[in-house]
Each structure stands twice: as structure tokens, then as C-alpha cells.
Amino acid sequence: MTQQLTLEDLAGDAKRRNRERRVKVLFVAAGLVSIAVSILIILSLAGEAWSFISQVDLSSLWTVGWFPRRGLYDIPTLIIATTIIAGIGMLVAIPLGLGAAAYLAEYASPRARRWLKPTVEILAGIPSVVLGFWALTFISPEVVARIFSSAKPFTMMAAGLGVGVLITPLVATVSEDAMKAVPMSLREASYGLGADRAVTVRKVVFPAALSGIVASMILALSRAIGETMIVFMAAGAVGGALRTFNPLDPGQTMTAAIAALATGSDQVAGQGLTFQSLFFVGLLLFLITLALNSLSNRFVRKYREQY
Amino acid sequence: MTEEPTTDEQLAPRPGAEQAELAAEIRAERKRVTGGTPDDAHDVIIELDNVDVYYGDFHAVDSVTIPVREKEITAFIGPSGCGKSTVLRSINRMNDLIESARVEGRIAYHGVDLYGSGVDPVEVRRHIGMVFQKPNPFPKSIYDNIAFGPKIAGFKGDMDDLVESSLQRAALWDEVKDKLDESAFALSGGQQQRLCIARAIATSPDVLLMDEPASALDPIATLRIEDLMYELKQEYTIIIVTHNMQQAARVSDRTAFFSVDVNEGKRTGRLVEFTETAKLFTDPAEQETEDYITGRFG
How does pLDDT run across B188-209, given as a tens digit for each residue? Predict the structure, then answer.
């Protein structure tokens, strides 16, 4: 005859349950704090931006250039410069990054891959201030100035190339992960039909990894748009910039404009409207990045070749 | 098909008269479906001659010699790890994808050494097609799956015709003709496997390697694949690896039985016996074969 089982036997230890409850409260609190901080940031951004837009003379948002000290807040100047620099960066990063990803995922021997992949990941961790300095002291005089004799020492071209180097590892590693995730069985199917490696990469692996590849590009674009230090150092025009479409001119991006205003290298910190324009640009930047991220999510869901 | 699925017991050799009876049965079944027992009239198309396969230092398969005859179905059977898939994959140089893999000995195709210098594995695979264990259609439309091989081979003719005839030969056309632009993933597992067969046929190979093509399928879908193999035999030489002894007995003309030697934890596969299927399943020359097919081993 076995012993009768009582409720106490299954009730467990009250101490243990209490501990579990405390741990749970701790984690929930940590989660809530990060959400609360994000909300506060957005609120303060939106509030200051609103106070800027409601006080500023709207015609000064569309003038000849970005000179906040003189009350000229030409937003297109910043958006054009941001687009040019991010565009040049992407032109560098897409072929280089995808090429590196294809090599690592499809061509490299396991041994080569074992040390190349971490190397690329380390490249992704180079502080942007180092790349900014490099863009200024190497890319600008040794690359840009040699190719384009009309180039000035500070150019959007040099900054764009620097940004390209910065985001290439991002494209490479995320795309490589996506390509590695394509099942071996699809490659075998392709090789089994008499496809060579190049065809297999182009016609089978790329389409199947497309969602990840596009995600990597959009991530890289977000990073390029949000990049500050390289453009701050290498694109020049710290005090302000004329509106220009020429990549060989100095230019000021949204991020560099904010940095200039906030660090006071523009000597405006704390000064009424000029200072508040910072929040307006910041909000704009935030919205652009948000839009890109949701776009990438939607794209990935819609066009992925599911395997 | 309405007949009862054959069980191991039914095909296992039984003493004396029953055994002869079963051999006759298998031969009769073959005659019914394929119109004859294998004879030596068919030329040898692929000749494996003392083939050894290594992965790095690991000796995976030891000294396999099998002549494969044209327009026959040759089955490779044996326990897990006996190297039957490894041998199959060395025939269309699929093992080249594994860097450390190395083949010694000679695999001749129409008399040409497939591992000779100047042989391009890509070209080999266009002549020797392959169907894999798990259906592996591309995440593309049914049409594009079939058109993939011909397109990369530079096919110039009417692609629509080729897609239709390939699907017809794989007995899939009627089921998919109205949804050629739908994703291949919308098909059932059995249909996907027939699609993969159609895809392999579309590049007009003359040999088809099938690596346990029905092991991921249900019994009905398996029977359809087996029926299809009978059909395909009229035009193609087929080599099939199978775990399923009944399947080998049902479909193949000749069977190679592989076994595995375990030596200090390393498993090396070897060929035990290669002969006419009806003979292998009823009157094997080797005790080892008999033990395996009667279920005493493996």
C-alpha cells in the first residue's frame, strides 16, 4: 500500500515561489524602464520640434542653405547632403558587401571562412571616429583629390566613401548569414542539374536569401543616414552649408548639423530657436529611420522566397 | 494499386520450394511491368571499378565494383552508414561539393573515366541527373523549377513544350497543368518529388541517380514514384539507393548489397554482393546478405 498523497506534498516551497516573483518583477521593471525612456525621448523630441516649427518663419525652412546662426534653416540642404553621402556609401557597400558575403558563404574554404568571418565582424566594430579621421587624412587627399582635381579638402565624396567602408561589413555579415541559412538541399538541386557555382549563387542562393539581403541593405542605409562622426569630420561645412547637389562640395548632413549645434562648435548651444531646430532635425531623422525599418520589415515579409 | 503492401516476411527467402516460388513471383511481377527479366543484352553504361571513397583520412567506402547496365534499374541496399549514398554521389561527382572527399579507383561512363583530368563535373551532372531523398524544389513556380536546368544549359527550343513533356513523363502534368505559375511549395510531398524528377528529366540526362527518393513519402506516393520508375526505365538508366528492401525487390533489375565494417569506431562500407535482384532476394551467395534480408542483421 502506498502512502496517501496530500496537498502539502505538491504545494512546493513558498520561499522559492517568492524568489521567482521577485526576479520577475525585476525583469518587468527593466523592460518598462527602457520603454519609458524611449517614449520620453520621443515626447521631448516632438515637443521641442513643435515649439520650433510653431515659432519659426516657415519661409526660412526653404532658402539657400543651412545657416542656423543667421536664421536660415534650409531643410533640403541637410536632406540632400544626407542622401548624397548615404548614396555614395551604399554604392560602395552593396557590391563590396554582397561580394564578400557571396565569397564567404559560397566560395571560401571552411578554413578561410573561419578567420575571415571574424575579421569582417571586427571591421564592423571600428569606431566611426577612426574612420572619420581616415576619411579626412587619407580618402580625401589620396583618393578623391587624385581622381577629381576640383575637389576641395572637405567633400561629401570623401565622407560618403568613408561611410561606405563603415557599412560594408554590416552588409557582408548580415547577407552572409542569410545566404548561409539557405538549405544545402537547394544548392544540391542546382548543382545536380548541371549548374556551376556562379549560376547557383545568382539563381538559387540570392533569390532564396533575398529577404535577408534586402534587410542588410536597409539596415546599412539606416546606419549610413544615422552616421555622424565620419560626416562631421570629413564632409566639412561645420558652421553651415549652401544647398548643393555636387558631391565634391562640402556638405552638412542632418546628423552633422545636430552634432554641430549640440556640441556648440557652432556656438549656439542654448540659444532659443537655433537650438530648438536641432530637435526638429532630430525628429526628422528619427522618422526617416523608422520608415526605413518598417519598409524593410514589410518587404521582407512580402518578397521572401520561402524554403 | 489495390494490392496489399508486401511485407518483409513475404519477400524474405524461405526454405526450399517456397524460395524458388518467390523468385518466380518476383520475375513474373517484373515481366508484367517491364516485359522481361534482366539480360546481358544491355550494355554497361557506368562501370564502378574498385572504387574507394575517402573523407580526409576517413575511409568511407572500400573497393566497390559494380557494372551498371543501360535502361535497367540498379538498386543499392544496405544498413545505415554502409556508404551506398556515398557511392551514388560519387557517380555524378556530387561528392566534389565536400572539400575533403576523394575518390580512388575508376568510375567510367560510356568508357570515359569520370575522374580523369579534363572532365568537368558540371558537364557530368548534365548527363547524370539526380533526385534527392527529401523533395527539394526551388522556392520558385512549378514552371521555373522545370525550366531551370534547360535554361542554364542554354536550351534554345520551345520551353513550354519542354516543360509540358517533362511533367508528362513524370506523371505530374494532369495535376499541375492549370497552376504552372504557382509556387512548387504548394504541392504535396509526393508531387514535389515527381516535380524534382521532372526537373531532372528536363535536362535530358541518360542516367538518373535516386537517393532514397521515396523515404520521405507516404505509401501511396511511394507507389506512384515506383510506377514512374518503371516508366522511366524505357528511356533512362536508373540507380536507386533505398533503405526499403521491398522497394528494391519491387523495382530493380539488379541489386548491390552493401555492408559496413566497424573498426575502432570508424565505419567503412563495402560491397557484399551484386547480382540479379530476384537471385539476391531468394538465393543470395553470401551468408551476410541472407542475414540482412531475413532481418537477422541491420
Answer: 999 999 999 999 999 989 899 9
Residues on chain A touching B152 (C-beta within 8 angstroms): 193-195, 199, 203
Are the beta carbons of A194 and B185 separated by less than 8 Å? Answer: no
Q: Do A191 and B132 touch (CB under 8 A)?
A: no
Q: Which residues of chain A have pLDDT under 50?
A: 269
Burial B213-226 (b: 16+ CB within 10 A, else e): bbebbeeebbbbbb
Give the residues across from B58 on adjacent strands: B55
Give the closest residue to B98 by CA, choosing from A175, A88, A188. Answer: A188
The contacts of residue A111 (CB under 8 Å, 6+ apart) are none
Cross-chain Cβ contact B130/A192 below 8 Å? yes
Report the distance separating Cα A160 and Cα A111, nearest Å: 33
Q: How far is it, in rounded angstroms, from Cα A147 to Cα A149?
A: 6
Q: Greatest CA separation found in chain A?
A: 99
Let me know whether A105 and A159 are in one domain. yes
A50 and A72 belong to one structural domain: no
| Chain B nearest C-alpha distance from A76 (Å) | 43
Show the cell assigned to B255: 541489386
Would you say residue A71 lies in a domain?
A: yes
Q: Could you tell me if residue B2 is inside a domain? A: no
Query: What ipTM describes this predicted complex?
Result: 0.83
**B185 chain-A contacts, CB cut-off 8 A:** 306
* CATH at residue B206: 3.40.50.300
Residue from the list B125, B139, B153 with its beta carbon closest to the beta carbon of A192: B125
For A124, other C-beta atoms within 10 Å of its C-beta total 16
In terms of Cα–Cα distance, which of A254, A260, A249 is closest to A158?
Answer: A249
The answer to the question of residue B81 being in a domain is yes
Residues of A in contact with B125 (CB under 8 A): 191-194
pLDDT of residue A94: 96
List the domain range (segments joined by +) for residue A129. Answer: 60-303
Asked whether the beta carbons of residue B132 and residue A305 sit closer than 8 angstroms, the reply is: no
- Reading the block at residue A85, the C-alpha cell is 553621402
- Shortest Cα–Cα distance, B50 to chain A (Å): 24
Cα(A22)–Cα(B279) distance, integer angstroms:
73
C-alpha cell at A254: 542632418
Name the domain count of chain A: 2
Q: Is residue B289 part of a domain?
A: yes
Are A125 and A186 in a shared domain?
Answer: yes
Binary contact (A187, B97; C-beta < 8 A): yes
**CA terminus-to-terminus distance, chain B:** 30
Pairwise CA distance, residues A75 & A61, whole Å: 6
Q: How does pLDDT run across B47-100, given as a tens digit for each residue? A: 999 999 999 889 999 989 999 999 999 999 998 888 899 999 999 999 988 888
Would you call B153 an interface residue with chain A, using a CB distance cutoff of 8 Å? Answer: yes
Q: Collect all residues of chain A within an 8 Å Cβ-Cβ radius of residue B94.
A: 188, 191-192
| Contact state of B152 with A186 under an 8 Å Cβ cutoff | no
